[in-house]
Task: structure prediction
Amino acid sequence: MAISDAMTAKLNEQITHEFGAAQIYLGMACMFENMSLKNLARWFRAQVNEEREHAMKILDYVLSHGAKVQLGAIPQPPTEYPSVIDAIEAALKHEQKVTGQINALADLADKEGDRPSQNFLSWFVDEQVEEEESVGYLLDVAKMASKNLLQLESAVVHLGRSS
Result:
């Protein structure tokens, strides 16, 4: 089943958004590396790979339906934030933005009665719940650690081990 031109256009936009998210997280990882916060940098590097995987998953879906992939420009991400907490807050806000984008895609699939895309996008809807929860937890830990960045570094090592 072919996907509509509107769905193709929105999926192509999402591919760009996912690659953009990877760049944003890479910028954060570099900031944390420069601060010698190796565990936090490693956690954000893992997010970079995850966002790239998301982009490729959508790209493969578009191609599998015989549609054309159009890659958009990715804005240069920041590599500096006023504080660790500011960076993590920016990450959470970004995840909330992505959740809105995914929900809009799911709404379009529903509106069009596009069952294959509805099914495909349900994984991303679930993934965004996990993403927001994970970054939200990281932000909570960062706020509790406040200026004790070594405590935050220690806590990050355990983040994601239970999932």
About this structure: Helices lie at 5-34, 38-64, 84-112, 115-145, 149-158. The two ends are 35 Å apart (CA to CA). The mean pLDDT is 92.
